[in-house]
Amino acid sequence: MTTTTDSIFDAAALTQWATRILEAKGVDADKAAAVAEVLVEGDLLGHDTHGLALLGPYLDKINEGLLTPGGDIAELSDRPAAVLWDGNKLPGPWLTLQAIAKASERAKEYGTATVVIRRAGHIACLAAYLEAPARDGLLVEIHSSDPSVRSVAPFGGREAVFTPNPIGIGIPTGTDPMLVDISTSITTNGMSARLQAAEQRFPGKWLLDNEGTPSDDPNVFATDPQGTIQLLGGQDAGHKGYGLTLMVEAMTGGLAGYGRANGVRGWGATVMVRVTDTAAFDGRASFDKQIDWVAEACATNPAIDPANPVRLPGQRGLARKRDALANGLRLNPLVLDAVQKLAADSGIALPV
């Protein structure tokens, strides 16, 4: 077996390698390719806690019977602009791409369309799904929750009820789209686990210990009872993150009819995908005129720190992606260690 100590890879070759790893675990070819594409896209955009870092955990869930490597979606409801699927615990990236394709097709006919998925596998980095439809003039929204996990408390509370409940929005412009990928909490479970494993702390008191005291120590999750992640807005304005969290719960578990009230077990996701055709209202040109004006007003806004000019969401990630496609994708050292172990365990060599 060939090994490599280099951290820089050709993204296409790395995607093919990840596809082979997944296929070797029995994942259907189309689903393996979709998962690999989304994970590598996450790394290309700089979201390296939600890129190839997830490949090993996904394989573990297949071994545990909590992620289904093959099969079909069960369609539970289908109206022209509203569709409900049971994802049957199939890989979340494949399901999400299928939902975007279905919602995009319907949105071009009806102006907007929504696909909700219950019992999906974890869906990785939300930003990874946004660029392609946004470049096609489609406004795409993704809301996700995991009803089996609790790490975020309601505002003013000490006991976890929610996940970080991310929201992704791809906004078309006349040039590069805006790619919004935010959690309704200050940080994520993935980053908390990474810092805890590395015995590092957060740059601010983004967590709460089990007494409700702000903390920067991810070891608050090792206590009994556990600590929690603070809502977006923290102690001063966490009611706003709380409101967004409840919105995501309504958009996912509420619309799916499947969520925390079901006592769900096993890592996964409930997902809402909504696509709006910007041409369906006053036309794409009118949409671009308005959004491009806003983008220009932001980009040219006088910076508080001239060394850090105002950026648009996704601007840095797309610049990273262009550089990585031209010059090679540099993996985070922790991610490199993980994929090298997968390569050694599987006998499927990393691309050199």
What does this structure look like?
The protein folds into two domains: 8-186 and 230-286 and 315-346, Ribosomal Protein S8, Chain: A, domain 1; 187-229, Wheat Germ Agglutinin (Isolectin 2), domain 1 (2-Layer Sandwich), CATH 3.30.60. It has a seven-stranded mixed beta sheet with strand order 2-3-4-11-5-6-7. It is an alpha+beta fold and 352 residues long. It has ten helices and twelve strands. Helix 1 runs antiparallel to helix 2 and helix 2 (29-44) crosses helix 4. The protein starts with 7 loop residues before the first strand and ends in a 6-residue tail after the last helix. It has helices at 11-24, 29-44, 55-63, 92-110, 131-135, 189-197, 234-256, 284-299, 315-327, 333-346, and strands at residues 8-9, 74-79, 82-86, 112-120, 138-145, 167-171, 178-182, 207-208, 214-215, 228-229, 269-277, 329-330. A hairpin with a 2-residue loop joins strand 2 and strand 3 (82-86). The chain is globular.
How many angstroms does the end-to-end distance come to? Answer: 11 Å
From the spread of the alpha carbons, the general shape counts as globular
State the domain count: 2
Count of β-strands: 12
- Which second-level CATH architecture of the largest domain applies? 2-Layer Sandwich
Keywords:
about 350 residues; 7-stranded mixed β-sheet; Wheat Germ Agglutinin (Isolectin 2), domain 1; 12 strands; single chain; alpha+beta; Ribosomal Protein S8, Chain: A, domain 1; globular; about 40% helix; about 15% strand; 3-stranded antiparallel β-sheet
